[in-house]
Amino acid sequence: MSKSKKKSHKGQHRHFTNPEEIAAQMKEEESKKWREQKEGSDDSDSESDDEFGGRNKGVEGLIEIENPNRAAQKMKKATEVNTTETAPKPQLSRREREEIEKQQAKLRYQKLHAEGKTDEARADLARLAIIRKEREAAAKKRDEEKQAAASKGKKK
18-55 b/e with 16+ CB inside 10 Å = b? Predict the structure, then answer.
């Protein structure tokens, strides 16, 4: 049997850190924090310029980044928020604008049609006038026939 090239770590003895080493590391970290706080109180202006309050790693401090999401949001005053009255109307899409124009044109046409100013309305009114005259003529003819029939009935 051939051994695999990768070495397995299973079954090896474990390495535990002594409690004294852990305590020494904790003291060292606390002393670093204390030194940073002491230095930070002297140079409070330089840390206030940092956006996140932490130190920059590598060349982050040298490169200026134009990321709008990275900047902290500034608080707005209530007077600045209430500018919705002076805000311009939102731009409508082409379809919405065409639909509104179509509705306005339809209303305008219906108004002119009701007033009788459109060609279609004039044609309808002329047709109605002709029909009225025909009906009046038919009604007169019926009345004359009834009168003629009634006069014939009286003569007999």
Answer: eeeeeeeeeeeeeeeeeeeeeeeeeeeeeeeeeeeeee
